[in-house]
Amino acid sequence: MHATITIKWGRAFFLSLAMLPMVMQTALAGDPADVPGIQIRYGDRERDTTVSAWFIPKIDGYIDDLLYTELLSEYQRKPFDYILVGNIYGGQPDASIKIGHFIKEKNISLAINGLCLSACANYLLPAAKMTIFTEKSVVGWHGGMRYMAATAARRKELATHFTPEQLQQDREKDDNFFKAVSVDTKIYACGLLLPDMQRGARKSFYYTPEAMATFGIRHVTFLEGPAQWLARMSTIPGHYLAQPCKDEDLVD
């Protein structure tokens, strides 16, 4: 199952870039479908031509090459400055890295209004020019190509899914991406050191805004406030607060 794109259209005089966080706060307080404007699913070419000038693609599902192709197609047709993340549960690393490079090169910002997990947190969030976290946002990491798992047994198991050459190539792409976006690769790894992360799968971790800044993610806005966002993260089962770590603490 691949991700889907929904296009959010709005009136030009509503927005300037400086106003966008304030407008987002109002528009995203309810369901994503409540964003002012006309909702058009990707593939539906019927549009109200009197309402144009700006639009925000909303992505949901699983990141793959089709999503990458659709985002590029929409941008070529009409450039956009924001991507609205509905619920992204993860995705293919290669496709996610390509979307991350696209976001970085085009200076696109994110508004996260749901789940941004795994590949979304690894590659879309670090690439964004800035990120708005709404009252529905959840961000979670659980490892990546360079640091794949918490335990030696799990790392060995995951490595069997790749040839040594493929693993090396994927890690080089991963390293090059994080260098390009000036974010520390350890952002998706330090939480693996938590005892809770070593006791089973389907768990994830998050950081304080201050910790995210130490990795290189600095331009963030929390609509409910940082303290309230952290308090809400702490209520999610299987989701643990992590701390920055050192290179020597990790095993790739």
Percent helix, as a range, is: 25-40%
**Helix and strand sequence:** EHEEHEHEEHEEHHEHEHE
E-strand count:
11
Mean pLDDT: 78
Q: What name does CATH use for the topology?
A: 2-enoyl-CoA Hydratase, Chain A, domain 1
Describe the fold and architecture:
The structure is a single chain. α2 packs parallel to α3, α3 runs parallel beside α4 and α3 (93-105) packs parallel to α6. The longest helix has 18 residues, at 164-181. By secondary structure, the chain is an alpha/beta fold. 33% of the residues lie in helices and 21% in strands. It has helices at residues 20-27, 65-77, 93-105, 119-127, 152-159, 164-181, 209-215, 226-233; strands spanning 4-10, 39-41, 54-63, 82-91, 109-112, 115-117, 131-133, 138-140, 204-206, 220-222, 239-241. It contains 8 helices and 11 strands. The chain has a single domain (4-244), classed as 2-enoyl-CoA Hydratase, Chain A, domain 1 (Alpha-Beta Complex). It is globular, with a radius of gyration of 18 Å. A 7-stranded mixed β-sheet has the order 2-1-3-4-5-7-10.
Protein topology:
Elements (H helix, E strand, L loop, with lengths): L3 E7 L9 H8 L11 E3 L12 E10 L1 H13 L4 E10 L1 H13 L3 E4 L2 E3 L1 H9 L3 E3 L4 E3 L11 H8 L4 H18 L22 E3 L2 H7 L4 E3 L3 H8 L5 E3 L11
Parallel strand pairs: 3-4, 4-5, 5-7, 6-8, 7-10, 9-11
Antiparallel strand pairs: 1-2, 1-3
Helix pairs in contact: 2-3, 3-4, 3-6
Summarize the structure.
The protein is α/β, with parallel strands linked by helices and 252 residues long. The chain is built from 8 helices and 11 strands.
